[in-house]
Amino acid sequence: MKKPDTHVKKRYKHIKKASQGIGIACVRGVLIVAGLLLLINALYMAIHANFNAGILFAAAAGLTFLLYGLFLVKLRGIKWLHVVMAGGIFLVVCMVIFLAVYGRIDTVTYEEDALIVLGAAIRGETPSYPLYARLEAAADYHMRNPGAVIVVSGGQGFQESITEALAMERHLLRRGVPADRIMKEERATSSYENFQFSLEILDQQFDGDYQLAFVTSDFHVFRASVTAKSLGLATTHCHAPILWYTLPTNYLRECAAVLKELLIGR
């Protein structure tokens, strides 16, 4: 039986090694670029938006990707690390896709009796874009269902000069929503409290049963729906869009919040 040609075997090994090298170089490049983009995004958001956990998550993810990409060659032998990294990335990507798809499917019938607008950050007295978009969605909802009561829910947080509810009321009044259709809830500091305290107001407004809807940002719809169900509410919802460059901070923060609620509860 003829032995394989030594030259052919060496050439095959050389091609295989070169292919592996190109593959590793591509992975390193993707990781380094992704890491730098996430760090730049976190820095931009820290300067131009109210500081929040999403900025920390984006910065941490960016630094992890950057370091992993820079030292990938030296870390090739640590298999468990690669499994953890791949598994973590896969989990986050799946969660982001699920939250994005779920959040864009509106269920409102425009026959509800009340709409709760969940609060978001304001800068001084000015609504941030996520809150602005929620208010615009609420104003559009009012145009299609002018008889519904709108509860604007949100207390006063860090870097905020007034309550979120007051800033929201002012915006809706400028958009032509009558004052007698707006109710302020100014204590809430979380999604759970948004619903809890808004219900206290609505229960006094309505004598019997009433149909309830809420509006929030697309990435937040799933968790808000789960929160509403935990209070025994059957709600419908509509979503508000977010700016593309806020995707990393918003979705990374939301993934962490969803995991936290699934693992240890509210």
Structural descriptors:
5-stranded parallel beta sheet, 59% helix, Rossmann fold, 11% strand, 266 residues, 8 helices, two-stranded antiparallel ribbon, 2 domains, single chain, alpha/beta
Structure description:
This protein is 59% helix and 11% strand. It has helices at 6-48, 53-70, 79-103, 129-144, 164-174, 191-205, 221-230, 247-264; strands spanning 114-118, 122-123, 126-127, 149-153, 182-185, 212-217, 235-240. It has a five-stranded parallel β-sheet with strand order 5-4-1-6-7. α2 packs across α8 (247-264). β4 (149-153), α5 and β5 (182-185) form a beta-alpha-beta unit. The chain starts with 5 loop residues before the first helix and ends with a helix. It has two domains: 6-103; 114-243, 3-Layer(aba) Sandwich (Rossmann fold). The chain is built from eight helices and seven strands; from the N terminus they run αααβββαβαβαβαβα. With 266 residues, it is an alpha/beta fold.
**Total beta strands:** 7
Q: What is the gyration radius calculated from CA atoms?
A: 25 Å
CATH architecture annotation name of the largest domain: 3-Layer(aba) Sandwich
| Average pLDDT metric | 91
What name does CATH use for the topology of the largest domain?
Rossmann fold
Largest sheet: 5 strands, parallel
- Specify the number of helices: 8
Helix content: 55-70%
Strands ordered across the widest β-sheet: 5-4-1-6-7
Broad structural category: alpha/beta
Overall 3D form = elongated
Cα-to-Cα separation, first versus last residue? 71 Å
The succession of helices and strands, N to C, reads: HHHEEEHEHEHEHEH
Beta-strand share of residues = 5-15%
